Amino acid sequence: MSAARLASDTAMILAAGLGKRMRPLTARQPKPLVRVAGRALIDHALDRLHEAGVERAVVNVHYLADALESHVKDRTAPMVTVSDERAQLLETGAGMVKALPYLPDPFFALNADNIWLDGPKSAFHDLSCRWDPDTMDALLLVVPHARAANFAGPGDFHMDPLGKISRRCDGRIAPFIFTGIQLVSHRLLRDPPDGPFSTNILWNRAIEEGRLYGISFTGRWFEVGTPQAICPTEEALQGG
Questions:
Q1: Among 15, 85, 111, 170, which residue has the fewest nearby CB atoms (within 10 Å)?
Q2: Strands 157-159 and 220-222: what pairing?
Q3: Residues in CB range of 10: below 8 A, 6 or more apart
Q4: 174 and 155 Cβ atoms separated by less than 8 Å
Q5: Nearest to 163 by CA among 112, 201, 122, 126
Q6: Three-state secondary structure of 140-159
């Protein structure tokens, strides 16, 4: 598929977290370097970006930053730029704000621990085909419970027939889980709060304004947040 059909040629990979749920594997390495099916988690993400035609990736670093930066520095497809958060871990929202000088409008964003198998089109082409900058601040790739391997939670979002996103109510189950992949406009990041903050703050504002949308992923997605999730993920990948 041609990169010209994508909504953006750049993605930000959120890779600065402490990886606490992946302990003890993250005692001496950052979570994005944990290996699954013979590849570091971040390489799975970078490979999917390259296959889709995304040319550039911005990777933020904090925990054991030298190891992660050394791992990605020679990557050319996509070309990697590092957003340095060694001085302070900024969380997801502030991390994107700090990286804005490297990011076009819009840009893809994804978590470093994502593993997925694409459906008929890549996740990034699915997002691009649905993107409408006039009505959306962000477009989230969500997945139903049936296609969310290793996931045991109550879900994250509801989605109406037009794709508008709303939060799960307390004590209820929501049908869609956020995959960690999204297409983001600079408008979402306007007027950010000071200091570290989560993207959830920006999503809440976009929900109130009717500008947070989602699409349902057509492939298979694997949550790889703990050591116990690695073996079943590897078995599923071997099975295709």
A1: 170
A2: unpaired
A3: 54, 55, 56, 57, 58, 102, 103, 104, 107, 108
A4: yes
A5: 126
A6: EEEEEHHHEECCCCCCCEEE
**Domain 3-238 falls under CATH 3.40.630.30:** no
The beta strands (E) that lie in 15-172 are given as 35-36, 39-40, 56-61, 79-84, 107-111, 115-117, 138-144, 148-149, 157-159, 165-167
Question: What are the boundaries of each domain within the chain?
Answer: 3-238
The packing angle between helices 199-208 and 91-98, to 10°, is 90
Count the neighbouring beta carbons within 10 Å of the beta carbon of residue 206.
21
User: Closest Cα to residue 62, out of 80, 93, 83?
Assistant: 83
Q: What are the pLDDT digits (tens) for 37-93?
A: 999 999 999 999 999 999 999 999 999 999 999 999 989 999 999 999 999 999 999
d(CA 226, CA 229): 6
Confidence tier at 186 by pLDDT (50, 70, 90): very high
Q: Find where tokens 């304004």 sit.
A: 209
Q: What is the distance between the alpha carbons of residues 80 and 76, in angstroms, rounded to a whole number? A: 7
204's tokens:
């809440």
pLDDT recorded at residue 153 = 85
Calpha distance 220→14 (Å, rounded):
21
- Are 59 and 81 in contact by the 8 Å Cβ rule? The answer is yes
Q: In the 8-state DSSP scheme, what is residue 24?
A: T
d(CA 211, CA 187) in angstroms, rounded, equals 10
**What residues contact residue 232 under an 8 Å CB cut-off, 6+ apart?**
149, 150
